[in-house]
Amino acid sequence: MSRKVRASLVPLAALLCARLVTSTADCAPHPIETETVHYVSGGESVSGFLAKPTAPGRHPGLIVIHEWWGLVPWVREQARKFAGQGYVSLAVDLYRGPSTTNPEVAHELMQRLPPDRAVRDLVAAFNYLAARPDVDPNKIGSVGWCMGGGYSLLLAVHEPRLAACIVNYGSLPSDPATIAKIRAPVLANFGGLDRGITPAKIRAFEKAMRAAGKSVNAKIYPDAGHAFENPNNQAGYRPQDARDAWNRMTDFLAKTLR
Known about the structure:
Helix content is about 40%, strand content about 25%. The chain is built from eight helices and eight strands; from the N terminus they run H-E-E-E-H-E-H-H-E-H-E-H-E-H-E-H.
């Protein structure tokens, strides 16, 4: 290959990279570092898993909310992936310690979680991120799966400063007064075969959001059921749908938090 041809490929590669940025946060992951952090919620000390870019300056923040299993390795992995996209990501521990792979135990943990305390911990997580010198307090979003997806929306209801909200197969509010309090744009990913959150409920939520003048973008994957993004859900994991949902999330965050 001639030097002239090789030289012409350099700006072409840069152009392709620039175009890809519109659909992914960056062409390559940012270097990151992780740690366990503690913050105060209602006078109590709670902990979370923080993953952040090592680059200096202020970055968008993201509150990562776990499924009913608790703060398990998969959730920490999601926080790392988002940090690699340039977000200071705080994976909250709503159970304050316990986690499990047993669905019966997970159900018990979820049932024992006081919703008001969970929302309080999430608002405290928002305040913790907003106070960090490496976070832009005007660009903090939330993302959750299953139980965490529902809490992502509840955070949007109770924290008007939230700049973006992602719900993955989480419960949806139907009360117009509750929906009226949501200020953040909402991105939602659901499985069409989910027996708990049916397509009819999703479309009703979309209709109520739009009637209230809210921003909502919901997608239903017809061949997927509940928890289709988690590979630990061996029977229900849908790799292609999970990749598409991930791309939707990164595109959405790039548009709302950048």
